Amino acid sequence: MGIRAYLDWNATAPLRGEARDAMAAAMDVVGNPSSVHAEGRAARRLIEDAREHVAALVGASPRNIIVTSGGTEANVLALTPGLHQGESGACERLLMSTIEHPSVRSGGRFLVSAQEDIPVTGVGVVDTDRLTHRLAELGGSRPLVSLMLANNETGVIQPVAAVAEAVHAHGGLVHVDAVQAAGKIACDINSLGADLLTISAHKLGGPKGVGALILANEALHIPDPVLKGGGQESGRRAGTENVLGIVGFGASAQAAHDALADSAARMTAARDRLEARVREIAPEAVIFGANAPRLPNTTLLAMPGIRAETALIALDLEGVAVSSGSACSSGKVARSHVLAAMGVPPELALGAIRVSIGPITTDDEIEMFLKAWTKRVMGLSRAKRGLAA
Ligand code: PLP
């Protein structure tokens, strides 16, 4: 591969050096963390140290971190009917925003008949009036409300703390999918008012296939673990721990936490420069969610008339890796449920491409995108309109 610009950090972030080094060092630890001998205890120490770093990133107690195989599993584990806190009644109804990640939209283990949608506004923020109205209608029935902290496609940040206050006032519990937010903006479980919080290592610069569901306190009880068997993760997630993955997760969480303010400032500056240039080059381009608070690293934009898959391939040929708002695993571009929920017309939504950067994204990479986008995407647009390139 020649020189490339990787601008798809929301899909996955490159592995941080700290995570790579920590995992390389852990490779020689042979023990099973459940074994009582010295080898086992050495492995146990590694995962408990990592747990502390993950806990520090979100302001939680290490005891309340349930390590999983990633954000998807953590979300499914959170969405368990019968979830309760201490002696309080169990959550038997799930309310979720229409822009959640598919792993939340699937409803976890709630029956379809127990799931309800909460709409979002045109800028991609959950409709808090509709939510509070619905909470009032439900009376004291203790719903579980699942709301992401930031959307993976638009980067739009949700008013989680205000929502949590309203939900708690009605006796419900709040699950927050913070997979895209963690490491990009402050993500403190207590300031957010979240009862359960999901994060994923590979979005922070850790390895793929490891994440965590974090509980705000020990009184929270998930009645039915997804994986039952051995007593790992305090009986909440069975299976011999992914020691290497957890070590990489811990190191990436620590590095992300230490660099948070600096990374956010760098990404905001780069992203704002990119958007200003796009607006200069093509005033007709649409930047989704631009009028809402957003993550510092995400731009979702469309050039009217140009399909995302055409743009993606053309940009890839120029050495620039971006994604459509909603690539399915088949690699085909489907209509984004997020943009549909925001009321974006289908023709425009099908043109959405997501540029997501990281703290080490360089000015040259941004330039590469702008050059490629001007040449290829603007070129196609001009050709479509019958203008000379
Ligand atoms: N939630 C959000 C908002 C995401 O963006 C993703 C991944 O893209 C997930 C959950 C799933 O996380 P994982 O890939 O670790 O299963």
> What is the name of the CATH class of the largest domain?
Alpha Beta
Number of domains: 2
Class derived from helix and strand content: alpha/beta
CATH fold-level label of the largest domain: Aspartate Aminotransferase, domain 2
Strand arrangement within the widest β-sheet reads 2-9-8-7-6-4-5
Question: If classified by CATH, what would the architecture of the largest domain be?
Answer: 3-Layer(aba) Sandwich
Unreliable sequence segments = none
Q: Report the bound ligands by name, code or SMILES.
A: pyridoxal-5'-phosphate
Q: Determine the strand fraction and express it as a percent band.
A: 5-15%
Described by strand count, sense and barrel closure, the largest sheet is:
7 strands, mixed
**Terminus-to-terminus distance:** 28 Å
What is the number of strand segments? Answer: 15
Give the CATH superfamily of the largest domain.
Type I PLP-dependent aspartate aminotransferase-like (Major domain)
Helix content: 25-40%
- Global morphology: globular
Order of helices and strands: EHHEHEEHEHEHEHEEEHHEEHEEHHEH
| Total count of helical runs of at least 4 residues | 13
Rg, please?
22 Å
